[in-house]
Amino acid sequence: MDQNRPILSRVATSAPDASTAIDRSITDFPVATPIDEDNYFRFHKPPPYLSQISNDVASFINYNHQKQRKVVLVTSGGTTVPLENNTVRFIDNFSAGTRGATSAEYFLEHGYSVIFLHREFSLLPYSRHFSHTTNCLLDHLKFSNNGNNVEVDDDLQKDLVSVLKKYQQVKNENRLLLVPFTTVHQYLFTLKLIAQELSVIGSDALFYLAAAVSDFFLPSSRIPEHKIQSHDHGGKLVVDLEPVPKFLRRLVDSWAPIAMIVSFKLETDSSILIKKATTALERYNHQLVIGNLLQTRKTEVVFVTPNDNEWIKLSEKDIENQLEIESLIIPKIVTLHKEWIKSRDDLVK
């Protein structure tokens, strides 16, 4: 190897400049009503593969519920908004799926079965440790002496064995179901389907809604069939988007009314985080909002419940030891879910 060859340092290009963020203290859109739900799902076509997902999800829930396992739906990654039917251009959401993929692993470690509703090609449980260039697997592979086989170097061997054992156990026990989406329409149709399937297990179902869902979309009636030409409309692209209905209240009231539901609130302004999370809790009437700031989301979050606000933070020692904050988040949610199940049981006694 040429010792004088320059080495390109790894840089992060996806982190936005927080100082340029807009003011997000404005009022949110109204919650979706039953009429909004009916109109949305009636005037937009469901994904053609939805029936297959329905069968897979129903079988997965039935199998794991028979094993007396709790089931959590973890949503992860960002949704896209296509600007053409034969999509070339689209609006995307900032999310690699790190929170969701990491959290799914910790739920599995706590005995849950996980339906992982994720953006296609985003981070996945277990494989996340060796993908997306954060710890590129290829950097740890080398040829054997005869040049015909590939070996893993000692630095990665221990981690790889540990992760592989966990993955194989989960796979053998049928406790992880991967369900992909790309567009916001696919996400909403699939979320509703899975929620209704999960409603049959009542309070044993948990929703951990970590996906970054688009706030706006282009209705199907206004999406052009083919690629928008650059010379159309005088060389300008003007897009008139509609707000995505706030279906969280429909999830709480109708789709899975007995399940425990956890949502996230991401902000860039610390002065409004608690207020925005509390407002979301009051508007949607669910059990927990996890608030986090874009700048510090990997080291601290705040649990906002109807009765309390609790900050969860990694210490400096935790950060030095590369502890993941999800290792603190998930055990607390598991405890809250146990309390939720008990409260539902007490209501029917």
TrEMBL record:
PANTHER family: CORNICHON-RELATED. This is Phosphopantothenate--cysteine ligase. It holds the Pfam family DFP. One of its GO terms (molecular function) is phosphopantothenate--cysteine ligase activity. Belongs to the PPC synthetase family. Keywords: Ligase. Residues 69-119, 203-305 form the DNA/pantothenate metabolism flavoprotein C-terminal domain. One of its GO terms (biological process) is coenzyme A biosynthetic process.
